[in-house]
Amino acid sequence: MTLKTGPGTGPSAPPRKRLFVKTWGCQMNVYDSARMADVLAPLGYAPVETPEGADMVILNTCHIREKASEKLFSELGRLREAKKAREAEGGRMVLAVAGCVAQAEGAEITARSPWVDLVLGPQTYHRLPEMVARAARAAGAVIETDFPADQKFDHLPEAAAPQGPVAFLTIQEGCDKFCSFCVVPYTRGAEYSRPAAAVIAEAKRLVEGGAREIALLGQNVNAYHGEGPDGATWGLARLLHALAEIPGLARLRYTTSHPRDMDDALIAAHGAIPSLMPFLHLPVQSGSDKVLKAMNRGHTADEYRRIADKLRKARPDLALSSDFIAGHPGETEADHQATLKLIADVGFAQAFSFKYSARPGTPAAGAPLQVAEAERDRRLQEIQALLREQQEAFNRSRLGMRVAVLITGPGRHPGQVAGRSPWLQPVHAEGPLSLIGQVVTAEVVSTHPNSLAARIIESPRGGEHSGDPPNQEKAAA
Q1: Which residues lie below 8 Å from residue 191, measured CB to CB, with a gap of 6+?
Q2: Most buried one in 39, 75, 211, 240, CB count within 10 A?
């Protein structure tokens, strides 16, 4: 993902420096990339669409997916030529590697790619202006991989480029869970929650900038425990109630959650807050208690089932999404079948699934009983086949339903707009671009494996919450 080009600077404006940012991974990385652009804007940097001719290139990396390092070094090899071309023009390209791979492998990055100028971890990008100045003076690379999450949020500028109808807002970083397969505690550090007042203030600015939906982000977002304006510690439920009071904010979401932090107050919030969308990403990873224990997840399969039941009792039309890992070390065929049973029992509107891939430094990487590659592949295919069947069935269940759609941009074809349903499904409909940023009522006329086609039947009316338009039918996932 790349940052979009900003507005023109006008004929009388001074020349701008060109900034290209490429983002891999989660929505938190997307948020971080946008904030890095905000931090660099006072230095004259403006986003561009391609790295060629750029004055600065930032690769914002993710360590979760397989072969993350290989993808990074491949990209750095291509950028070396673009950097040389920029120098041949008499200019300079500052090349930076940010994010979780930078945090985990900073020294190796500069050793293998000495043309990299900056290496910065995800908690240090507020210091980018200082790092850029140091890079201009330094003979070698500048490396910053500390963990001052509190300092980062204290020093970010209040001014931020508008994100559009859907905006992302990081409220929590880091994780204390130490799942056996995960690098997040090592690359993002311990859990840190932003003060509630700072989150609310940023949310208001996002709404003033045109956001109608805000997705709250965190590596373990429902572990949020920020200081409230009243001096008390606020949980995520209390924060959601406060955010729901912001005028003009039609929709709220949050991701990613952990079952261990799904408390009763948060479950109740799903039934009490109309603007909290009926869609929740709640990773379970496995349906086997033995594997869940080996993963250090801290919950059982039946505890996950009970949480799902409570959520659907609070909000009957709630749809669940999840994550699954096939072939974690020690997983047997019986464990795999237990995962398939949990999927069948719970039912998911969508999900992400991966075969286990070792991450250096994590406990599972050196665990005995590693599952053979071919067996991991087979199990993953069976998991994905069942999840795909459930997703298609969920989409078909929307056929003929009147749903609220937040229009987020133009569609693929002329005269078409695109948006999202309350259940995060992509929706396409015929309509004018003037509807962008509006919540419309639309009737679903056809369904596809990954999207819906709809007919807009009602223009937006002020004050109507987007999760519950007139005549909308209720359906559980």
Answers
A1: 172, 173, 174, 175, 176, 219, 220, 223, 225
A2: 211
Q: How is residue 162 written in tokens?
A: 């508008």
What pLDDT, in 10s, does the model give residues 113-155?
999 999 988 878 878 888 888 877 766 677 776 655 555 566 5
Retrieve residue 31's tokens.
């948020």
Dihedral in degrees, nearest 10, Cα atoms 403, 274, 29, 122: 180
Residues paired with residue 279 on neighbouring β-strands, in sequence order: 319
Residue that is written with structure tokens 């404006």 in the block? 13
CB 444 within 8 A of CB 453: yes
Give yes or no for a contact between 56 and 40, defined as CB atoms under 8 angstroms apart: yes
φ and ψ at residue 152, rounded to 5 degrees: -60, -50
Whose structure tokens read 């993953």?
380
- Count Cα atoms within 13 angstroms, Cβ side, for 253: 28
CA 132 vs CA 93, 107, 126, 129: distances in Å: 11, 18, 11, 5
Kindly state the helix (H) or strand (E) to which residue 81 belongs, with its residue range: helix 68-88
Q: 34: part of which helix (H) or strand (E)? A: helix 27-40
For helices 196-208 and 236-243, angle between their N-to-C axes, nearest 10 degrees = 30
Separation between Cα atoms, residue 457 and residue 417, nearest integer Å = 14
List pLDDT tens digits, range 410-465.
Answer: 998 999 999 999 999 999 999 999 999 999 999 999 999 999 999 999 876 543 33
Look up the pTM and report it.
0.76
CA 343 to chain centre: 23
Cβ burial, residue 415 (10 Å; 0-12/13-18/19+): exposed
Rounded to 5 degrees, φ, ψ at 359 are: -110, 120
Q: What share of the chain is helix, strand, coil (3-state, %, to 5)?
A: 35, 25, 40
Where does 63-126 show beta strands of DSSP type E?
Answer: 94-99, 118-120
DSSP-assigned letters across all residues of 146-195: ---HHHHHHHS-S------SEEEEE-EE--S---TT--HHHHT-S-EE--
Pairwise CA distance, residues 312 & 267, whole Å: 9
Alpha-carbon distance of 162 to 35, in angstroms, equals 11
How far is the C-alpha of 299 from the C-alpha of 291, rounded, in Å?
Answer: 11
**Separation of first and last alpha carbons in the chain:** 30
- Count Cβ atoms below 10 Å from residue 232 Cβ, excluding itself: 10
The strand pairing partners of 440, in sequence order, are 405
Q: Are 173 and 192 in contact (CB under 8 A)?
A: yes
